[in-house]
Amino acid sequence: MSVETKLPFNQEYIQAFSKDRNEPGWMAMLRSKALEMADSLDMPKPDKTKITNWNFTDFQHSNKEAVKITSIDELPEELRAYFDDDASMENLYIQRNQTAAYNSLSQELQDKGVIFTDIFTAMNEHSDLVEKYYMNDAVAVDQNRLTALHGALMNGGIFVYVPRNVQIKEPLQAVFWQEDTDSALLNHVLVVAEEGSSVTYVENYISHNDTEETVANLVTEVFAHDNAQVAYGAVDNFAAGTTTYVNRRGVAKHDARIDWALGQMNDGNTVSENITYLMGRNATSDAKAVSVGRGKQTQNFTSSIRQFGKATDGYILQRGVMKGSASTIFNAIGKIEHGATKANSEQESRVLMLSEKSRGDANPILLIDEDDVTAGHAASVGRVDPLQMYYLMSRGLEREEAERLVIHGFLAPVVAQLPIESVRKQLTQVIERKVY
Amino acid sequence: MSSTVLEIKNLHVSIEDKEILKGVNLTVKSGEFHAIMGPNGTGKSTLASAIMGHPNYEVTEGTIKLDGEDVLEMEVDERARVGLFLAMQYPSEISGVTTSDFLRSAINAKREEGDEIPLMNFIKKLDWDLEYLDIDKNMATRYLNEGFSGGEKKRNEILQLLQLKPDIAILDEIDSGLDIDALKVVSKGINKMRSDNFGCLIITHYQRLLNYITPDFVHVMMQGRVVKSDGPELAKRLEAEGYEWIKEELGIEDEETAEQNA
């Protein structure tokens, strides 16, 4: 039995919502079409995970206005840990529920034409620019029912635009804080790096609804034009009550690079797709992700790099730790299209099981339609090596401490990639909390 | 400092239901260096592993006591904290954990909470020991034993010995696979530990290590037992004449299936 498929939102509601935000006509149209499609499209079908009984469609879409924030001190303790002590609050966006509560971009970057603003303001002030990228070439509205639903009901997000040849050294940080425990978050992150530019962007999702049930439906689209470089870091930390669908996609042109470092630390059921299209010659992507599963949560992670351009390089690295009766599937898909000569596709997925009842699976998939390429894969699912434990304990470390070291060591190749020190620390703390 | 006594009595040890040790008796006290020699497969490494509590070895009979306390009742980490140390023949590789982070955790594991070693003291001592053992400083920031050469792993074991300062150390074939320069450095490290407060059990296949470390006692193990004990001159005779004369003297006959690498 599947859940009731009738959607609880109609065209009038959506048009009013759009009008409230003063959205351009194309966006109102996109929402309307998306809603039409949503009813007839299929749900996504993550490999080896049954999601027919998960609730992705029945939620509150109310928009609670949240109070603005003027300093870090106004944030709860839990959130403050995301910032360095001497954080300047510059180049920072904080979204409280669906409202832009804080937004700052240095004068220098503003002068260079960098845009770093909430998605609604962006649609008003840079309508043509947003329209060009929004749900076109990366994530399509009609990909599945959830992307259509996202298109229809998007209620938050950010737009990052880096003009030609602008190199941003300091990272841009976004914090999406879902303070309200009831309403759903349909967040859209759009990052555009023009030719020869570079940017590091790091985001955090946080919620507190351990028991109240709600939905997160997230879409990220990243565009790296010729010679551009985008480093994208994330720590997803939705509470147990949130069922999450997160779809992060990147498109890299000639000599462009998109690197991902994703800390997938949700406590609720999660389906995550991270797909990068290497369209131009010499484009590169390094997609790294870690996850810790606990309790009864079920998760499905797909990390995929599709290589169309010649001499492209794709690297996928996934690491997962499972405890309790958590169940997680890791799919790594390297795809080399016909014509992508001299392409290289590498992947490694490893899962560490800490309990008898947890379940983990790593599926290495290579799909190659070209002869002149190189590719490699490695996958393993196993328990903590008793000989490693013996070695560490023989130096006086207690069992728990020895296990902690082994786990941190196991996740280190991904954690170390997160570009902001405070976020890296935060991820380490979240890992610690989830593991013990 | 008080003197420490490790006392092994009638120790029987099996691996996968196969008895390797068949009644070992041995006592090691602070201030003493003991060498255990013997042909391959006579149970030397099994003895070392059983003392430390290797998960694959089962003690079926006998006792191991440290200052009267039952070592066999202790978890592996407790054995370390009461003063035992085993330099392993095949140390594990721990990815993602740097040698220096690990060492600091291990040092602090022996100290009370709130009395952790100050970072600067730790770094100073570590630098000093690295230099003493002629180890590249980079090793401290490399992942523990990961990608280390055989020689580097052995030096790392001795580095840990110097850093952790146990009361009784067991060195399991610390000389295997070392060239002569590395052997000298490793011996230098072990000799540095020599004091009235430190006892050592050196397991070796070859006499050559004992050219650099002079033991007070030499024991010969055969077929799962200590069959002969004497002073350092015994090692020299073994080097010159091999083990046959002991077999003849004691009337030991070769077992039909010699167990290799036990």
UniProtKB/TrEMBL annotation, chain A:
Q: Tell me which residues make up the SUF system FeS cluster assembly SufBD N-terminal domain.
A: 24-173
Q: Which residues form a coiled coil?
A: none
Every copy of the SUF system FeS cluster assembly SufBD core domain together lies at 178-410
Question: What SUPFAM superfamilies does the record tag this protein with?
Answer: Stabilizer of iron transporter SufD
In which domain of life is the source organism classified? Bacteria
Q: Which family does it belong to?
A: Belongs to the iron-sulfur cluster assembly SufBD family.
Q: What is this protein called?
A: FeS cluster assembly protein SufD
Q: Which organism is it from?
A: Oceanobacillus neutriphilus
TrEMBL record, chain B:
The organism encoding this protein is Oceanobacillus neutriphilus
Where the record annotates domain ABC transporter, the positions are 6-248
Q: Which GO molecular function terms does the record list?
A: ATP binding
Q: Which Pfam families match?
A: ABC_tran
The protein in question is named ABC transporter ATP-binding protein
- Report the sequence similarity comment from the record: Belongs to the ABC transporter superfamily. Ycf16 family.
Which PANTHER family does the protein's record reference? ABC TRANSPORTER I FAMILY MEMBER 6, CHLOROPLASTIC (PTHR43204)
Listed PROSITE patterns:
ABC_TRANSPORTER_1, ABC_TRANSPORTER_2
Keywords noted in UniProt: ATP-binding, Nucleotide-binding
